Amino acid sequence: MTHVAAALSQEAGPIGVFDSGYGGLTILSRIQETLPEYDFVYLGDNARTPYGTRSFEVVYEFTLQAVNKLFEIGCQLIVLACNTASAKALRNIQQKDLPYIDSRRRVLGVIRPTAECIGNITRSRHVGILGTAGTIRSQSYVLEIQKLFPDIQVSGQACPLWVPLVENNEYDSPGANYFVQQYIRNILEKDPHIDTLVLGCTHYPLLLNKIRQYTPQGISIISQGEYVAKSLKDYLHRHPEMDALCTRHGHCRFLTTESEEKFKESASIFLNHPVQVESISLG
Ligand code: DGL
Predict the structure, then answer these.
(1) Segments of the chain scoring below 70 in pLDDT
(2) Is residue 77 part of a domain?
(3) 230 and 219 inside one domain
(4) Which of 8, 34, 93, 259 could bridge across to 229 with cysteines, CB 3.0–4.6 Å?
(5) What CATH code is carried by the domain that includes residue 71?
């Protein structure tokens, strides 16, 4: 376990948003729409993406390094805008690491807020989760959804080629069609009664047009950003002590473990505007 050695400041800071790559930008943009006055630091571990195919231990180690980095630069609250990290590292970080690092700081994930919205959306009570191999194998969605809504049947489909398509800017290419169609077909074969498909990976909203094209009408497709943003707003409302530790100047800083040029080019596609970015190393 890598714990921060130096004493951490208790001053207010920006909200940290972390993802293995660019996918978390789909969450960040919805959070910024919902909480425009807050400050954010986005950290993408682009040099080591994808996480989806990595072991539990490695995802935990990388995520903890990222959390420590965001704490060092002054974040009191961090959102893991990555399902894979939320599935494989969040619980350990919350239960084992935070008490040592600083028990007042908080790390939140994206699976719980997504699971909470499902009950009001599905009518057939059959839900499909599309995610990375790691997220699907962890069964985190099945556990979270069934804890809240025991009557809902949950099926999962790993879509290991979707993140590479997005990370390599191929999400709109004709070559992507085959893999989009394939995974949608697989999950609907597993359970033909599914009426709600959850995009359980923050990269997938970039593939939304193609996913819609191959999903039969009448099936709802859930992108997480909106739900995570609402849930964060609600969290800050319920925790005024944490809200007071979040600065508000409407600024956003971007950090990447990859080259600045590469991040700038891809991030502007996700966000529809140019960004300044600093390259950092983790670990
Ligand atoms: N964006 C991450 C998620 O939500 C996964 C990408 C990856 O495999 O690194 O699961």
Answers:
(1) 1-7
(2) yes
(3) no
(4) 34
(5) 3.40.50.1860
Is 201 annotated as catalytic?
Answer: yes
pTM of the model: 0.94
Instruction: Identify the pLDDT of residue 5.
Output: 45
| Distance (Å, whole) CA 168 – CA 121 | 32
Structure tokens at 231: 């849930």
Count how many Cα atoms sit within 13 Å of the Cα of residue 195 in the half-sphere of its side chain.
11
My answer on whether 20 and 156 are in the same domain is no
* Ligand 1 contact via 50 beta carbon (within 6 Å): yes
Domain assignment of residue 252, given as a range = 15-109+226-279
Residue where a domain stops, chosen among 188, 204, 224:
224
Q: Which atom of ligand 1 is nearest to the CA of 54?
A: 8
In a domain, 78, yes or no: yes
Residues 138 and 89 in one domain: no
In total, the chain counts a number of residues equal to 283
* Atom from ligand 1 closest to the CA of residue 20: 9
CB 83 less than 6 A from any atom of ligand 1: yes
Only one residue has tokens 């099926």, namely 155
| Catalytic annotation, pick one of 75, 159, 201, 246 | 201
Are β-strands 252-256 and 277-279 bridged in parallel, bridged antiparallel, or unpaired? parallel
